[in-house]
Request: fold
Amino acid sequence: MHPLPMALPLFLLTITVGCSSIPKEPPAIEAVSTDLSCLAADKLMASSNNDQDNGLRYDDTIQTGRYTVIMALPSLAQTKLLEVMITVSIPYDIHSIGEAARYLLKRSGYQLIPEPIQGPKAAKLLAKPLPEIHRKIGPMRLMDALSMLTAPAFELINDPVNREIRYQLKRNYLSGELS
Reply:
């Protein structure tokens, strides 16, 4: 007799017995809450109670998902308009440093004080041609981009009350010394 017909019933018996075995009961697991929103809120309240000067309250949070809590507060860029991150390509129809500064300020809510009011040295610099290297700016803060246009001799002066900026010659350049 051939050994193959004998092995086939044995194989079928093994598969059938293996599949029909009764599964064991899984080990008991304690019920644990996975809702972390209360933990996040407790932590926020604890940090608010410790740091009253940060201005955060429980009312300033909104739960947007099971595990997500967001702050219902303005962003840094919304409260400090010159701190916004920008990446800009200055168009080729803008030719001077002053025009480039006005272009950067276009959507910021700030204005550049007119050149004659800024003084003759600032007016002279702002009328100069925009260097080609300054046509692609960023990513960087708007304030840094505006400072870069006139660096190193001028500093950016911010008037947040009137939302105006101007450039002022640095002290070490007033006397004519170069550093």
